[in-house]
Amino acid sequence: QVQLVESGGGLVQPGGSLRLSCAASGSILRVYDMSWYRQAPGKQRELVAVITYGSSTNYADSVKGRFTISRDSAKNTVYLQMNSLKPEDTAVYYCNADGADREYRSFHAWGQGTQVTVAS
Asked: What is the pLDDT, as a whole number, of residue 18?
């Protein structure tokens, strides 16, 4: 079984920065795409950023130029550097990973979520 554990959320003032981390653990053969999603109160979960195994990236228009996704494949860890944060970035942020385990079964795992609140 593959588990994802996020960390790094918290309360920050508008214009501030936070860095989220998400580590995958378990019987992992390889992790392919790793993504960050977010869900604000009363809204649907939305894709924020994705990074492929080859480190290609894609971002939601609302975060382009402010957020940076990166990964350390040796550690099966993905990061989200969030700069110039706005109140509308307030949400629970979830990590997601697709890959294969050591029995060559595919997995699609979610983290438990970490709260990011941007407020003065």
From this structure: 98
Q: Which DSSP state fits 61?
A: G
Tokens of 109: 């795992």
Radius of gyration (Cα) for the chain, nearest Å?
14
CA–CA separation, 27 vs 83, rounded Å? 34
CA dihedral 113, 100, 59, 48 (to 10 degrees): -20
pLDDT of residue 75: 95
Nearest-CA neighbor of 81 among 14, 34, 36, 33? 36
Give the mean pLDDT per block of 10 residues along the chain (120 residues): 94 98 96 98 97 96 98 96 98 97 95 97
CA angle 45, 46, 48 (to 5 degrees): 135
Sheet holding 2-7, edge to edge: 2-7, 18-26, 77-82, 67-72
What is the distance between the alpha carbons of residues 109 and 34, in angstroms, rounded to a whole number? 10
